Amino acid sequence: MIARSPPRFGRRAVLLGGVAASLWTWRGAAGAATTPLQLTAAPAALALAPPPAAPTPLLAYDGVVPGPLIRLRLGDDLALHFANRLDAPTTLSFPGLRLANAVAGIGGLVAPPIAPGAQTEIRFAPPDAGFNLYLPDVGAATARQLGAGLFGPIVVEEPAPPAVDLEAVVVLADWRLDAAGRLSGDAGPATLVSAGASTAPRRFSAAPGARVRLRLANASAARAMTIVVSGVAPLIVAVDGQPSAAFAPLDNRLPIGPGARFELVFDMADAEVAFALRGEAEGESDRPLIVFAGDGPPKLARPAFAGLAANPLLPREINLARARRFALTLSGGGGAPLAIDGETLSDWSARPQFAVPLGAPVTLALVNATAVAQTMRLGGHVARRLHALDDGWEPYWRDVIAVAPGRTTRLAFVADNPGKWPIASATPAARAAGLCGWFEVG
Known about the structure:
This protein has 2 helices and 33 strands. The protein has helices spanning 142-147, 428-432, and strands at 3-5, 14-15, 23-27, 37-46, 56-61, 69-73, 78-84, 119-124, 130-134, 152-157, 166-175, 192-195, 198-199, 202-206, 211-218, 225-230, 235-239, 242-247, 253-256, 261-267, 273-277, 287-294, 324-333, 336-340, 354-356, 361-368, 374-378, 383-386, 393-398, 400-403, 408-414, 419-425, 436-441. A hairpin with a 2-residue loop joins strand 12 and strand 13 (198-199). The radius of gyration is 21 Å and the shape is globular.
């Protein structure tokens, strides 16, 4: 039987700070009957800016931002009773989980959104272990709902998680507030970055030598961040919810675009370990977002971390010679409407950008003809980024893909999840402005 366990907090538990955040844990046999747990999207007011600013009116899941951490073990069913208490339709989607199309929560493409005052039961067994976000997917309205606080973390544990002393889950967000502490759409340099459920920096403590696993996500509606690590050389062990070959970030920098997720492992140094937001303007200092302070007696050294086990459901090779080949051109900006292959869409078109048979290998070229970097999300699948000379691919899977201005990024994946899937901007405002396409598998 699947049961709702009491919250687990402590050194070995996941830590979320600031505003109280609940931790849900499921244990039990896959497919067992259970009473669905409750999750509600509704208006809220939370203290983002320091006094004397009033609490900021937001939207929240169960009254907290980020929403409650949903945690289960691979093989367990997730059962949720989701209620919409907003003044607009919404959905609950789980991008990155590679779910069946019918339960993926893609409003308008597969099923209608959930109306205000309505509720629905959501149930599925995630096919993969990993760290992802849950959030709304409701067309042009996604930008407002995500930007106002509707996002939360979900962790599907491996059958045998690696031994660590501290596991931290931190969801980064970017807020633009006016002088009264309310959300503002005005342009300007003043922004507030939150780490977890508190304004940055988010602080943890661990003994020197303690092994730390940091699950880090960017839930910003638009902001790409460069995170600079000091005090330790971490290993990246998973990207966008999928285990990767363990590798060190170049120059200890971590570029994390909207919607992206990274997992890192490191052993605590004697001194402070900091993850800071790289200053973007000339003369702007780096801003600490997450700080790990040494505390307690040193721990015995462990062998070097060997990495996470590869996902056995993902192919070890993709037959590029047999691949169906497609290219999508992203254009617009500078006063011109954003478009995919010349078509500007803020909602789903009547026909897909491309269609492939189930099981077919695919190569997809994303051509960025705009003057700024674009970040695209691949729905229902994960892809390998191909090297420019076709001589290999990056050692990780991605479902959020950044494409530099004036450049082309090529991807390879196996179309193994039937249905209608987005290939749209991971930045909700750009998606609402025209970068909103889809593809069909089956």
